[in-house]
Write a structure and sequence with these properties.
Layout lengths: L23 H7 L14 H8 L5 H8 L4 H14 L5 H10 L5 H12 L2 H14 L9 H15 L8 H7 L7 H21 L3
């Protein structure tokens, strides 16, 4: 008999997948230089992105973010965050909730924070409402909380408050605590904000 207590409630949501195949040249240009678990891991992320920034738009991101691989998906999320491609907000939100692949959620949290919209906040809250009940799933709870806190600081809101107690209980036995994750998150958002600004100069 299936254990409904351990069933993830987002399984019925439809994930965006694309059948578009891209060649090795496309991958080397738009994916390989940028896939990483954390933007701060790549010392050339900003300069490499500036080189292709003028080409990044909906068509490029659509080819990338629908692939069934965390590398392409996280790169697509980074691009959406930098270029404010909010047309992918639902795709990112659903991918984030379903948590189908490792690492990808870090990029999705960054993108949702970058959008700062009511819809993005709702996706972050839905994520925390469920995943903070699952101590057996060490997913991206820390990044979801970081995204909410970053939004709170930017918009003078208080969304994080309603999750502080639940998060504290969830991370109680963790060796790495929230402040460390948040510092890491902020460093990445600073890079995203800097690259956003290059388009407005």
């Amino acid at each position: 008999m299936e254990d409904n207590n351990n069933k993830i409630p987002f399984e019925t949501l439809h994930s965006f997948h694309t059948e578009n195949e891209f060649d090795e040249e496309f991958y080397k240009k738009f994916v390989a230089p940028f896939y990483t678990v954390r933007i701060i891991n790549l010392t050339n992320f900003k300069s490499d992105y500036v080189n292709i920034k003028a080409e990044i738009g909906t068509d490029i991101v659509k080819k990338i973010i629908g692939q069934n691989n965390w590398r392409e998906r996280i790169v697509g999320a980074f691009f959406c965050a930098i270029e404010n491609l909010t047309e992918f907000e639902d795709i990112i939100g659903v991918h984030f909730l379903k948590s189908e692949l490792v690492h990808q959620g870090k990029g999705f949290a960054l993108a949702l924070a970058s959008f700062k919209s009511k819809k993005s906040i709702d996706y972050l809250k839905k994520y925390l409402d469920y995943y903070l009940t699952r101590k057996d799933l060490n997913y991206e709870q820390n990044y979801a909380m970081s995204a909410l806190k970053w939004i709170d600081k930017k918009t003078k809101s208080e969304h994080t408050k309603e999750y502080e107690q639940r998060y504290s209980e969830w991370e109680k036995d963790a060796s790495r605590k929230f402040d460390s994750y948040y510092d890491e998150f902020v460093q990445q958002m600073q890079i995203i904000e800097e690259l956003k600004a290059t388009g407005n100069q």
